[in-house]
Automatic annotation (TrEMBL):
Recorded family membership: Belongs to the UreD family.
Keywords: Chaperone, Cytoplasm, Nickel insertion
Name of the protein this chain belongs to: Urease accessory protein UreD
Function according to Swiss-Prot or TrEMBL: Required for maturation of urease via the functional incorporation of the urease nickel metallocenter.
Length: 302
């Protein structure tokens, strides 16, 4: 099963460059009605809703806002595909950004991004927030496969993911973070992932990187690695490994651990690596292993 998406080259500003907003000035406000009165930040919520029309998946709601420009991609079979494009530099300090994604009953939806998301310092010390809210209804499938999030020096970003799954839904969710650009210390990045399935808690996880988070670069967390990420799989037909599986023989090249969750139909792979390319390879390997592993029968035999 290959879920690797085509990459668009990412232009990453060098440390010290002033990010430009849509009005052409440094840290300028977006000129839409969604811009808040406070010039130090942008408030925006983009929305995606996919539905099944009896024959295939359509996207009846595609609402762009602020830095989010949403574009339909060519469908892949019955799977609708949407790409999130950046209309301006974001998130900056003080921004309040949100993305709502709903896959209705029987829908098949993939959401990607065209390039990396870059958290930059802003004109204020107020943290930026980026909330991704996902709902996957009965017998529907969502693939959330964005490009990495890059935390740059001086930035502060609090990111949250809130996922509500129906008992018969399927989810492939990949998240990757790069802590600092080349030769640059990262900013402060926190993420919280909360997943419910059938109304019951499945996963509640919090991570923090960069000062003032304690020991984030110690040997028990990232060590010398600056690329980290995870892959969450929820699938009623998943072939679950009977115990955690380690991927990667050389710690210097990065490694991943594929771990069963309390729900027998859910797995999470967590990886660290020196580069984004090595991180993606580890997560792709974990994905392939999860779907290639035979599912144990009722007696615990393969």
């Amino acid at each position: 099963m290959n879920l690797t998406t085509a990459k668009t080259p990412t232009v990453i500003p060098a440390p010290g460059d002033e990010p430009l907003r849509a009005d052409g000035g440094p840290h300028g406000r977006h000129s839409t009605e969604s811009a808040p009165a406070d010039p130090s930040g942008v408030t925006a919520t983009a929305r995606i809703r996919a539905a099944h029309n009896g024959r295939t998946t359509t996207v009846p709601l595609l609402h762009s806002d602020g830095p989010f420009h949403l574009r339909r991609l060519r469908a892949r079979g019955e799977q609708a595909r949407v790409c999130v494009l950046g209309a301006m530099s974001a998130p900056l300090g003080g921004d309040r950004l949100a993305l709502d994604i709903t896959a209705g009953a029987r829908a098949r939806l993939e959401v990607t991004t065209a390039a990396a998301t870059i958290a930059l310092r802003g004109p204020t010390t107020i943290p930026a927030t980026y909330d991704v809210r996902i709902r996957v209804d009965d017998d529907s499938t969502l693939h959330w496969l964005p490009e990495p999030l890059i935390s740059t020096r001086g930035s502060t970003l609090h990111q949250t993911f809130t996922v509500d799954l129906a008992p018969t839904s399927r989810l492939v969710m990949r998240e990757e973070q790069l802590l600092g650009r080349s030769g640059e210390a990262p900013g402060h990045l926190t993420t919280r992932l909360t997943v419910r399935r059938g109304g019951r808690p499945l996963l509640d996880q919090h991570t923090a990187y960069g000062d003032p988070a304690p020991a984030w670069d110690g040997p028990a967390v990232l060590g010398a690695h600056r690329a980290t990420g995870q892959l969450l799989l929820v699938d009623p037909g998943l072939g679950m490994p009977q115990e955690p599986h380690v991927i990667g023989d050389d710690p210097a090249e990065g490694h991943a651990v594929l771990t069963p969750l309390a729900d027998p139909q859910a797995l999470i792979a967590t990886a660290v690596a020196p580069t984004p390319a090595q991180l993606r390879h580890l997560l792709d390997t974990a994905l392939a292993y999860a779907y290639e592993t035979p599912r144990p029968d009722a007696d615990g035999e393969q």
